[in-house]
């Protein structure tokens, strides 16, 4: 072994010891062998490893810690482990730059693989449910026509499954009923599954999967199908992946050909299932070692029974379409802050442009000043100078005749409204206020900072207000709160349920925005509901532009970017500045609010 | 834009600009709307004014008779000066024109009475 490799191994061992407690390495062969520099995080090719190992030895298990760049091979005995150690050490199996660094492991602590060990509730697999003859007969029924989907061929019987809305129209059954050849299946089901005696589905979806095709993770719409959903695998075996979105738990199930999968209770309502698009699966053989199996052309026959009328009273709100108003969806967003390089462009497209477009309609809806903001302005001493940062249509610039007021905003449209009202305004970005230092007695910023897409930018907006304030000057800041209910009192925003004509009912859950070369995914908020997403508070809020000449269905929907604030988040941001004192902080009509004083 | 607003505007937000004040003022179109003269208001405003900016403003609109220096103690009782300031700061509206950074000569246009102080991404 070269000195260089040895040195690298020593380094990696030290890192692993720091990373996972109680791990113990050994220089003597052990039945566990660690690959110290390859894992899920850096794109390990498990298939290549397993195929190569299977030439010489038997691999019982491969332990892949979540989001780590190392993994562990578990052999039946230390002798097999030694063979592989000698074969693999320093070799490059798929990436010329990454020679494998290995070490025997004497003791391996519990590893979090996020992999559920026991079978989730409600999952039943009946192997060899049908004979090979029946399998052939069923496959011959399916003539795949032109109804091509993106990733696979599909055919419906009984009722058509509509993919856009994930629903069926129960008033519109298909002429093509479930083929009578399937009748034999129900006799078998009665015999083989006591719990499902008498279950007679009325809808069948047949999918054809080429090797390499898969299906995205999904949960069959709760309200439209009965419990259970059953699915026959024909033509090829496959591994199906199950995921529980709240805990992030994962479970894989090998579905051999001719087996019947039954999804009921938790696995039906609480879990999502899908198939990873790849050409091979790693499976455990009967003798208990891992092997790589090629996928072949596979058909799945998924049988469901419609619920008429659609309804659901499950206990699993998370994925339930009926309880969508209350649910908290944990989506697979990046869950990170918006990238600093994208932030300015995102705000340009999804804040500035939108306000210019919707400005006049928006202005019509913004006429009543919030009482507490009005009180703040009226409390300022006579002769004070006030700057409204993000003044919009100027609804606060007309309050208190005894003080001098200036307003600034980004939007041309809204500033024009202000000049018609004879207010002193100028156009700028709240990140660069073109006013001299220490010149104002007070600043207000109402519903502005929540349009900034990174923490740095939100901080800078507050800094700028502090800069233009005189010593002892006060600033009032309002931002939209993630929580739209306080002490069980719903805010006006929630109570005005679907009454605003700017509200939008039918929007997708996620939007993918193309910002230069970057694609970012943001959840879309449903108007007049609690903010249910946990994407660090970053959401898009729709606005439907009301135009008199335009028909309801044609009216354009704009998506405004918001960062909705957690409780305490605004105070924390303010406190990061020197020279200020927080005078008051409160919750007002769905907003978090702070009054600060420059000291 | 009222010239009271002009008194507070700066281009210091531009990268590498140190003071950015007072801005040069170029007026293409202006209008005058008389308002009630309130001497106490002007008296209170006096200490907030930067006389270098006021001189530029007065020159630009063609208002005569502003002293080179301001003495706060005497000026506060100088009714003639207070009236002139009232006219300059509150009655004149700059409709079209531009503001110019004294250090970089970056032009900020004024259209429909609104100065556009927006900066490009590469200027900040």
UniProtKB/TrEMBL annotation, chain A:
Its cofactor is Fe(2+). Residues 200-307 form the Fe2OG dioxygenase domain. Keywords: Methyltransferase, RNA-binding, Transferase, Zinc. GO terms for cellular component: cytoplasm; nucleus. Pfam families: 2OG-FeII_Oxy_2, Methyltransf_11. One of its GO terms (molecular function) is tRNA (5-carboxymethyluridine(34)-5-O)-methyltransferase activity. One of its GO terms (biological process) is tRNA wobble uridine modification. The keyword NADP does not apply. The keyword Zinc applies. This is Fe2OG dioxygenase domain-containing protein. It comes from Polypedilum vanderplanki (Sleeping chironomid midge).
Automatic annotation (TrEMBL), chain B:
One of its GO terms (molecular function) is protein heterodimerization activity. InterPro entries: Trm112 (IPR039127), Trm112-like (IPR005651). SUPFAM superfamilies: Trm112p-like. Pfam families: Trm112p. It comes from Polypedilum vanderplanki (Sleeping chironomid midge). The lineage of its organism: Eukaryota, Metazoa, Ecdysozoa, Arthropoda, Hexapoda. GO terms for biological process: rRNA (guanine-N7)-methylation; tRNA methylation. Belongs to the TRM112 family. PANTHER family: MULTIFUNCTIONAL METHYLTRANSFERASE SUBUNIT TRM112-LIKE PROTEIN, UPF0315 PROTEIN-RELATED. This is Multifunctional methyltransferase subunit TRM112-like protein.
């Amino acid at each position: 072994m070269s000195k260089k490799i040895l040195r690298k191994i020593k380094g990696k061992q030290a890192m692993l010891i720091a990373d996972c407690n109680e791990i113990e390495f050994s220089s003597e062969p052990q039945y566990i062998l660690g690959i110290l520099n390859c894992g899920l995080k850096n794109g390990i090719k498990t298939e290549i490893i397993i195929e190569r190992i299977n030439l010489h030895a038997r691999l019982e298990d491969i332990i892949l810690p979540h989001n780590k760049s190392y993994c562990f091979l578990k052999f039946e005995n230390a002798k097999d482990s030694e063979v592989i150690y000698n074969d693999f050490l320093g070799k490059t199996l798929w990436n010329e730059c990454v020679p494998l660094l290995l070490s025997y492991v004497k003791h391996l602590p519990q590893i979090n693989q996020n992999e559920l060990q026991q079978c989730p509730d409600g999952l039943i697999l009946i192997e060899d449910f049908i004979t090979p003859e029946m399998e052939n007969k069923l496959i011959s029924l399916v003539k795949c026509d032109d109804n091509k989907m993106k990733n696979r061929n599909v055919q419906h019987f009984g009722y058509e499954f509509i993919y856009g809305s994930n629903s069926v129209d129960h008033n519109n059954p298909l002429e093509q009923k479930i083929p009578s050849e399937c009748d034999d299946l129900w006799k078998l089901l009665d015999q083989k599954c006591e719990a499902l005696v008498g279950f007679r589905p009325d809808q069948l979806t047949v999918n054809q999967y080429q090797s390499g095709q898969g299906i995205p993770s999904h949960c069959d719409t709760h309200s439209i199908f009965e419990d259970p959903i059953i699915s026959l695998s024909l033509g090829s075996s496959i591994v199906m992946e199950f995921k529980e979105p709240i805990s992030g738990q994962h479970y894989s199930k090998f579905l051999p050909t001719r087996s019947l999968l039954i999804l009921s209770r938790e696995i039906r309502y609480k879990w999502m299932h899908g198939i990873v698009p790849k050409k091979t699966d790693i499976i455990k053989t009967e003798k208990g070692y891992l092997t790589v199996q090629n996928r072949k052309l596979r058909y799945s026959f998924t049988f469901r029974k419609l619920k008429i009328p659609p309804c659901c009273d499950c206990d699993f709100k998370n994925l339930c379409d009926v309880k969508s108003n209350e649910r908290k969806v944990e989506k697979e967003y990046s869950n990170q802050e918006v990238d600093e390089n994208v932030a300015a462009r995102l705000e340009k497209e999804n804040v500035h442009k939108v306000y210019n477009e919707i400005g006049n309609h928006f202005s019509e809806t913004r006429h009543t000043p919030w009482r507490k903001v009005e009180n703040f302005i009226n409390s300022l001493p006579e002769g004070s100078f006030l700057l409204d940062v993000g003044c919009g249509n100027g609804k606060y610039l007309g309050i208190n005749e005894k003080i001098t007021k200036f307003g600034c905003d980004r939007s041309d449209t809204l500033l024009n409204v202000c000049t018609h009202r004879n207010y002193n305004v100028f156009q700028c970005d709240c990140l660069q206020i073109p006013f001299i230092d220490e010149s104002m007695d007070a600043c207000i910023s109402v519903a502005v900072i929540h349009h900034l897409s990174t923490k740095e930018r939100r901080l800078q907006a507050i800094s700028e207000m502090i800069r233009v304030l005189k010593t002892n000057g006060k600033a009032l800041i309002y931002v939209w709160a993630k929580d739209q209910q306080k002490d069980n009192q719903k805010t006006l925003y929630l109570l005005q349920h679907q009454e605003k004509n700017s509200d939008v009912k039918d929007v997708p859950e996620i939007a993918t925005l193309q910002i230069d070369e970057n694609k970012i995914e943001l959840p879309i908020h449903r108007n007049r509901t609690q903010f249910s997403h946990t994407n660090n508070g970053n959401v898009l809020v729709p606005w439907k532009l009301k135009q008199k000449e335009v028909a309801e269905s044609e009216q354009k929907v704009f998506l405004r970017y918001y960062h909705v604030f957690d409780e305490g988040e605004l105070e924390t941001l303010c406190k990061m500045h020197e020279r200020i004192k927080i005078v008051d902080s409160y919750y007002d009509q769905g907003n978090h609010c702070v009054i600060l004083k420059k000291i | 834009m009222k010239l009271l607003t002009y008194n507070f505007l700066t281009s210091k937000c531009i990268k590498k600009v140190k003071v950015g004040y007072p801005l040069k003022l170029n007026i293409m179109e202006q209008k005058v709307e008389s308002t009630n003269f309130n001497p106490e208001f002007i008296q209170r405003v006096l200490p907030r004014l930067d006389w270098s900016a006021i001189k530029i403003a007065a020159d630009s609109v063609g208002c005569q008779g502003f002293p080179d220096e301001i003495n706060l103690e005497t000026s506060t009782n100088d009714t003639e000066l207070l009236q002139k300031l009232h006219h300059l700061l509150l009655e004149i509206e700059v409709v079209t024109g531009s503001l110019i950074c004294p250090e970089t000569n970056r032009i900020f246009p004024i259209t429909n009475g609104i100065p556009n102080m927006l900066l490009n991404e590469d200027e900040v």
